[in-house]
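User: Second chain of the day. Same drill as before.
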Amino acid sequence: MPLHLDIIPQPSHDEHPIRLLQLSDPHLLENKQDFFAGIQPFKSLQMVIEHSKRHLPFDCILSTGDIAQQPSQQTYLDYLEEVAVFNLPHYWIRGNHDDNGNFPDQSPSEEPEIILIGQWCLIMLNSQKQGCVHGEISPMQLEYLAQALHKYHNYFTVIALHHNTFPVGCKWLDQHSLQNQQAFLDCIQDQEQVKMVLSGHVHQEFSHRHRHIDFLSCPSTCIQFKPQSEEFCLDSQPPGYRIIELYANGNYSTKILRLSENIGEIDYKLCEY
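Assistant: Same format as last time:
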């Protein structure tokens, strides 16, 4: 099976790490001025991007799904135009709210996006299951993933998908995680080159180590979910993003950064969306 491959030139600053910016869950609306859960998602995304510019340079941007709350062609156009201000390679995947024919595919939905940069391989998986909130990686994608891990076994590897693999401790949310977790783990957990799995979906910072692999979630650029909540509950934490630094020897570091405050007044009475 062929693989959809992109190669980013080795950064000229090769004595420094490769630097990735992870954005997730903007939940943008068709009208950039409209409000969702008490805030303007587009303005919040703009402020997050502006904040992240303080930490340039980056080598590429990874967006881990739920770009749209109202998945129209205009919504995605607005998003892509906003992120284009970086003038950097940019890769994105579907979230459960992106279930729409207007999603700007970079590769066929069953075919992972493979990005080689320096000594690292980045693999973007589609965990969206049609019509469902929870996620699933299709058997075909798992075959592609196994093929990629074999072909690029000499590269240290980062995998990104929308849905979280492990429970985060929110009872209402954990039922909507990746449903075929074990099949995914069977594919990657014995692959020593796999260093981390990045996800979105849970609108909060979370980390879990399974064997040698770190599973890391990212805050939303929009609203946040309250950690350890039994029922749906929004959090007062402001929007954020993740920065990852990848070193040529396979080591890595990462941190979450946030705005100093929310862009708007969060509607804490909201019980679902």
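The domain at 4-258 is CATH 3.60.21.10 (Purple Acid Phosphatase; chain A, domain 2).

User: Great, on to the next one.
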